[in-house]
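Exercise 7. Predict the structure of SnoaL-like domain-containing protein from Ceratodon purpureus.
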Amino acid sequence: MQSNPPAVEEEEPAQASAAKETNTEPNPSTIEESEPAPTATEATTEPTPLNAVESDASSTSKETTTELGKIAKQIIPHILNLYNSCPSATDFDAIYAPNATFEDPLMQAHGVAQIKSAFYAMPKVFLDSSVLKYTVKEEQTAPKSGEICVDNLQQYKLLQLGPVGYFITMQSLIKLKVEGGKVVRHEDLWGGYRLWNRHTVRVPLVGRMAETVRRGSMLLTHVLMGFGKDHKTLDKPRDASVRLMVS
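Solution. The predicted structure, encoded as tokens:
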């Protein structure tokens, strides 16, 4: 009786086994992308309380070489005073041309007197208002003319119950059209969304109605605030409330 010879296991070639054991994971260094460095025309700053403004010296190269950049450095501190609910007559004189306009989703102001009423009314509506963070960009179209855009993170205090303060935070895009060194048009786009008017909506009648509502709201505010009368605003102390954010 003959027995079958034992099966012989064939060894895989060394090259094949080495190929299986080869690590096929990509090198992280080949896929990792570095974050883009900020451009010279963009400056992000964390504003200090009230009228003090911090600037990023590393991102002001264009600001110091263009006239619009210099104008932006002059008027931005005054813009921050408006949005921090501590405006003064000096701020409006430094920012606006006599025939300037201001528009946001609630109001449409014509002339500096109405713009004053709009911003002096903010402390009457909110317990507090402050700029948390902002980014400035400029686009010069002519000497001392162009557009300044401020990407603004704004916080409003709605209510105070004991030690607890109720706040709402909102992103907005502030667009300032500058001519001859002064702002002639100021738009505040909440959330970056364009304003409704006869030119931006599909149904012109709806746009006209939105414009009429904003004009009516502005005229009522103008009357209540004394037709552009300058109001004294006090320096705001640091708010030590327990913060409850409303989303």
